[in-house]
């Protein structure tokens, strides 16, 4: 089978813990999380997560042929991850199931306004091995690459494979990869067609103060990447090229949960590019999908069921900055 996109990265079992007592801010956190105390929970939600699996579900719901390359343990959580993907229409035959490690697990502490603290056990997702995947059997037009905890050897091999097979890459790097700096990341700009960042990551790569948005975007526009996309929470998202900057607003009601919003936006943006080759429409689809996701508990619960009518998407206002 030839895929339109293959996602690569983490897979986890997530538990969302909602409390009205826990507050944001170091002082309130210290009081609420005092050792020996008890916190009453206002709600609990189980879901599967991880950048690769969240993105894969979006691509499948956008009507694309998609496979996921990730690692899970031979345990109930790993089974749940694979079952969720299978029922969403994602090909899971390239996922690695290992008896040596447990499936990754995240405990997400949520405030009533959607702010969060995440406790992460990366488990099987922490240690990718190139030889575990039969790359001769992976035929795809796009790779959607999420965080690999700074595994430079694996990423170098993947980028080389993408060049040799004329595969386009959309990259949502994690903190391990961002620590390499722009000069190293730009080595892959010939195959990375889309670089996906949040505002803090963009400031880090641009070596600018987070408050200096104009300077951040100007620096990114001068990079070798054809498209750089920056999400900025409730302030929406911006597509940056050498020639222009397109901005779209945050959509949807007040956020219940920001977990998975970046995955929802980035994967839907790339799905839009694949379907229409139009950054403006891709931006609208990304905003639509992330607006859905933040309104619900869980990273996958409210991923779009299908691509909405184009007329509805065109109502989302995109402005030229």
What does this structure look like?
With 321 residues, the protein is an alpha/beta fold. It contains eleven helices and 15 strands. The strands form three sheets. Strands 4-1-9-10-11-12-13-14-15 form a nine-stranded mixed sheet, sandwiched between helices. The chain has a four-stranded mixed sheet with strand order 3-2-7-8. Strands 5-6 form a two-stranded parallel ribbon. Strand 7 (104-110) and strand 8 (116-121) form a beta hairpin. Residues 25-31 have low confidence and may be disordered.
List the total number of helices. 11
CATH superfamily: Ribokinase
Count of β-strands = 15
**What percentage of amino acids are in beta strands?**
15-25%
Instruction: Characterize the biggest β-sheet.
Output: 9 strands, mixed
Number of domains: 1
Strand order of the largest sheet: 4-1-9-10-11-12-13-14-15
Q: What is the CATH architecture annotation?
A: 3-Layer(aba) Sandwich
Q: What is the CATH domain class?
A: Alpha Beta
Instruction: Note the overall shape.
Output: globular
| Cα radius of gyration in angstroms | 19 Å
CATH topology: UDP-N-acetylmuramoyl-L-alanine:D-glutamate ligase
Element string (H = helix, E = strand): EEHEHEEHEEEEHEHHEHHEEEHHHE
List keywords for this structure.
321 residues; alpha/beta; UDP-N-acetylmuramoyl-L-alanine:D-glutamate ligase; 9-stranded mixed β-sheet; 4-stranded mixed β-sheet; 11 helices
Briefly, what is this?
33% of the residues lie in helices and 24% in strands.
